[in-house]
User: Which sequence fits this backbone?
C-alpha cells in the first residue's frame, strides 16, 4: 500500500505531468475547498441567526399562554392550581386586545397588552414604574406615528355586538411613558403595553382577564408542562381555555428558518458536486496521459486492482486537500467575520446587517463541529463515488495494446 500511495502522490504532484491536467487538478481542489468553506460559513451563520431569533422569541413570548375567548373571571383559581408545579417560576395574568392607536392625524393597528406593574417585567422590559394612564410603545409604531416619550396618544378598542356589527366606543387618551426596542419586527411595529386597569377599562372586563402567562425555569420543558397543565385545569368546571407554548406561537417563523437553511445547504452543496465532475475529468485525463506508465506497471507485476487503487488514491488525495483547505478557510473566515464584513463594506459599500432592518449590528454565528464533520463526510462520499469510474477504467487498460500503439 505504501508503494501505491507513493506512486499516486508522484502522479498528483509530478512536474512532468501535462500542464493542462495540473490546472484541472488545481481547479477541482479549489472548487471543493470553496464548496466546503461556503457550507461551513453559511450553516454557522444560519445557526447563529436561529439561536439569536430563538433567544429573542423566548424573551418576548410567554413560555406557556393560557387564553380564552371569554373573560376569565376566576383567574385566581388557575394561578392557585398552577402553584403545585415546581417547574413554574411565575404566573402573570394579562389583558390582551387589538385596537387602534392614533396621534390625532394618523392611525395604526396595535396589539394592546395590559399588565399589572407589580409583575415588574414582561416582554423583557421593566414595568415597575408604569402608572395608570401611561403607555409603552414599540419603536416601530412610535416612529410611524411620530410619537415620543411625553406625547399623548389616542387609543380605541373596537367591539362587536351580537348582530356582528362593529362599533367604536369612546376613545381614551394616554401619555407615552417610554418608547422601547423589543428586538423583533412584529412587536416593534405594533406592540402597546399599558396598565392592566386601563386595558380592563377599555374592554369593560372589570377584574377579569383574558390570558395568563406562565414562566418556566426551563423553557424547553413546555411540551410536557402543557399536557400537565391541561390535565390539572380540567378540575376547574365551566372553564373554556386554550393552552399554547412559545414554540407553537412562533412555529411559522422557525419553519421558515429551517426551510431557508435547508435550501441554502442544498444550493451550496451543488458547488461540491460540480467540483466532483472536475475530479472525474482530471482523473480521466490523467489515465489517458499515463497509459504508457500503466503498461509498465502491469508489466512489472502490478495487478489491475493495484492500478485502480493508485488512480483512486490520486483522486482521493486531491479531494482530501480540498476538504482540508475548505475547513481551514471556513473556520478562519468565521473567526474573522467582523473583519470580512468591514472589508466588504469598505470596498463595495455593502452593509450585511443594517441595524434598522435586522436589529443586529454584526452577523452572529455558531460553529457546530457536527456540521463540519457532516459536510466533510458528504464531500468525501460524493468524491469517492466520482473517483471510482476513472480508476476502474485505468485498471481495464491492456498493456499489450498500449505498448503496440506507442511502438507503432
Assistant:
Amino acid at each position: 500500500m505504501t508503494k501505491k500511495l507513493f506512486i499516486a502522490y508522484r502522479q498528483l504532484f509530478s512536474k512532468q505531468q501535462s500542464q493542462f491536467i495540473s490546472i484541472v487538478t488545481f481547479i477541482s481542489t479549489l472548487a471543493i475547498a470553496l464548496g466546503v468553506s461556503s457550507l461551513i460559513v453559511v450553516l454557522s451563520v444560519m445557526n447563529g441567526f436561529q439561536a439569536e431569533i430563538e433567544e429573542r422569541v423566548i424573551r418576548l413570548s410567554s413560555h406557556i399562554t393560557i387564553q380564552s375567548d371569554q373573560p376569565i373571571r376566576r383567574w385566581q383559581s388557575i394561578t392557585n392550581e398552577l402553584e403545585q408545579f415546581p417547574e413554574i417560576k411565575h404566573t402573570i395574568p394579562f389583558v390582551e386586545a387589538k385596537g387602534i392607536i392614533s396621534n390625532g392625524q394618523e392611525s395604526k393597528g396595535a396589539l394592546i397588552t395590559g399588565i399589572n406593574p407589580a409583575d415588574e417585567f414582561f416582554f423583557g422590559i421593566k414595568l415597575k414604574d408604569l402608572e395608570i394612564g401611561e403607555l409603552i410603545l414599540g419603536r416601530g409604531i412610535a416612529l410611524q406615528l411620530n410619537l415620543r416619550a411625553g406625547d399623548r396618544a389616542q387609543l380605541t378598542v373596537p367591539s362587536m355586538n351580537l348582530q356582528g356589527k362593529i362599533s367604536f366606543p369612546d376613545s381614551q387618551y394616554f401619555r407615552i411613558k417610554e418608547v422601547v426596542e423589543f428586538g423583533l419586527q412584529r412587536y416593534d411595529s405594533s406592540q402597546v403595553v399599558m396598565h392592566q386597569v386601563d386595558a380592563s377599562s377599555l374592554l369593560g372586563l372589570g377584574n377579569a382577564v383574558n390570558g395568563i402567562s406562565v414562566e418556566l425555569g426551563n423553557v424547553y420543558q413546555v411540551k410536557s408542562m402543557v399536557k400537565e397543565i391541561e390535565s390539572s385545569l380540567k378540575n376547574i368546571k365551566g372553564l373554556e381555555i386554550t393552552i399554547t407554548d412559545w414554540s407553537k406561537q412562533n412555529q411559522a417563523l422557525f419553519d421558515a428558518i429551517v426551510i431557508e437553511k435547508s435550501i441554502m445547504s442544498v444550493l451550496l452543496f451543488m458547488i461540491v458536486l460540480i467540483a466532483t465532475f472536475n475530479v472525474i475529468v482530471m482523473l480521466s485525463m490523467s489515465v489517458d496521459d499515463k497509459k504508457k506508465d500503466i503498461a509498465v506497471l502491469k508489466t512489472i507485476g502490478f495487478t489491475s486492482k493495484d492500478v485502480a487503487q493508485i488512480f483512486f488514491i490520486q483522486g482521493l488525495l486531491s479531494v482530501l486537500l480540498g476538504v482540508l483547505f475548505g475547513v481551514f478557510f471556513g473556520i478562519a473566515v468565521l473567526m474573522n467575520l467582523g473583519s470580512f464584513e468591514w472589508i466588504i463594506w469598505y470596498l463595495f459599500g455593502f452593509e450585511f446587517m443594517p441595524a434598522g432592518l435586522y436589529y443586529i449590528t454584526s452577523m452572529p454565528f455558531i460553529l457546530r463541529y457536527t456540521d463540519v464533520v457532516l459536510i466533510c463526510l458528504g464531500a468525501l462520499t460524493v468524491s469517492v463515488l466520482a473517483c471510482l469510474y476513472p480508476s476502474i477504467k485505468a485498471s481495464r487498460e491492456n498493456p499489450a495494446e498500449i505498448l503496440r500503439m506507442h511502438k507503432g
Q: What stands out?
A: The chain has two domains: 2-56+253-407, 62-246. Residues 2-56+253-407 form one domain.
